[in-house]
Amino acid sequence: MTTLRQQQKQRTRGALLTAARRLFVERGYAAVTVDDITTEVGCSRATFYLHFSGKPDVLRRIGAETVQQRAVSVYADLDEVLATGSRAEFAEWLRRAVAWFERNRDILPVWDEAVALEPSFRPIATEAVAELPAAMPRYLERWGEARSEEARLRVGLLVTQLERFFTRWAVQGTLDTGDTDPAVTLTDIWYPALLPPEHHHSTEVD
């Protein structure tokens, strides 16, 4: 059973996360200070540092705790989809992945800015990307130990392309897909790229 003091600490932590996210989205990562966040909540810097080690840490926790659905679960879903062997299921997964980017589009530029400007945030971002193939054990198993690194790289490249596609298409509006369904085109590119070698061979033979 949580005590009143613990409940208060949890409320303060939640308020700090909410305030930090809103300020980061409104002003950008670099322009926001710890003082800005604590002023918004009405607490001291000491209280902030009871919960977080600094701005990179609070942004990391925003990514882990305040997004509507964690990116890891999106890729755990992909692990199941690839196990079906269905291109159509993969196309549907791509639509769900793009919808995830849409739900979290406000925080994505903040994350990119922090990676570019904050050296101490880069290991956090690297770890976050590494978590994604780790959430796909069946996919990694099909590639085998000898090609595990290649399999992980392929997922990382997929993540990168989806991020850039979404940014240029939905955020910047600099990529015009016309009447084409981008999920179908992305499936043509990425579904074969994620198949382990024996599947490529059997597809060529067929």
TrEMBL record:
Domain of life where this protein originates: Bacteria
InterPro entries xrefs: Homeodomain-like_sf, HTH-type_TetR-like_transc_reg, HTH_TetR, Tet_transcr_reg_TetR-rel_C_sf
UniProt keyword list: DNA-binding, Transcription, Transcription regulation
Domain (HTH tetR-type) ranges: 10-70
Pfam family name, one: TetR_N
DNA-binding region: 33-52
Protein name: Helix-turn-helix domain-containing protein
